[in-house]
Amino acid sequence: MSDPAIARRGMMLVLSSPSGAGKTAISRELLDRDSNVTMSVSVTTRKKRPGEVAGRDYRFVDATEFNLMINRQELLEHAKVFGNYYGTPRAPVEQALSEGRDVIFDIDWQGAQQLKESARDDLVSVFILPPSHDELDRRLHTRAQDSEEVIAQRMAKASDEMSHWPEYDYIVVNRSLKESVAQVQAIVAAERLRRRRLIGMTEFVKRLQDGQ
User: Fold this and answer.
1) Disulfide check for 17: which of 23, 35, 165, 175 has CB 3.0–4.6 Å away?
2) Cβ of 198: how many Cβ atoms within 10 Å?
3) Are 181 and 25 in contact (CB under 8 A)?
4) DSSP states of 97-154 as a string?
5) CB count, 10 Å around CB of 21?
């Protein structure tokens, strides 16, 4: 906010989609365009993919360490996806929110449900849909990250994942990256003006009413 007396609590911006629908590409564009947005770096037990950087894309741990993090209540949410575990470290997210920064979560519907239970007021959820079944299949093949077997598994699971769309606050059909990023930016701009996120607004309005 422009007035120094008015602060803002950050939001948890959850982007979910079937694999290949575009949530990661949209997340990266938002990070490039908005300095007040940061990415939640998930912890995972899966192996690092080519091009990924530990600490930037994911924090890679073994199953023992992951379970210890659960037991120590260090994760805001966690889920098992395609045989691997993923989770969101609590401390960096809570720090960012308190500093008025928005945190993007690239997580699935299981993680979104857990966040909804523990952080409803901070949560803004967006589900990204592909424009068609064939286009989703094409995108999975184009990114060349997975074997044919894994792609088949992802396509088979996509229907179940898409069935959770009514649980989200907003829906974006990713026909083009440019259009989808603009739509998510509009969501972010509106949600930043939510009354419950504005700290000091009561005092600000009272001063206005008092003629100050």
Assistant:
1) 23
2) 16
3) no
4) HHTT-EEEEE--HHHHHHHHHH-GGGEEEEEEE-S-HHHHHHHHHHHT-S-HHHHHHH
5) 27
- Which amino acid belongs to residue 21? A
pLDDT, tens digit, for every residue of 58-106? 999 999 999 999 999 999 999 888 889 999 999 999 999 999 999 999 8
Give me the pLDDT at residue 3, please. Answer: 66
On whether the CB atoms of residues 31 and 123 are closer than 8 A, the answer is no
Burial of 109 (0-12, 13-18, 19+ CB in 10 A): buried
Given a contact cutoff of 8 angstroms between Cβ atoms, the answer to whether 12 and 105 are in contact is yes
Beta strands in the chain (DSSP E): 7-8, 12-16, 37-39, 42-44, 58-60, 75-81, 84-89, 102-106, 123-129, 170-173, 198-199
Count the neighbouring beta carbons within 10 Å of the beta carbon of residue 158.
21
Structure tokens at 210: 């008092």
**What is the homologous superfamily of the domain 7-40+102-209 according to CATH?**
P-loop containing nucleotide triphosphate hydrolases (3.40.50.300)
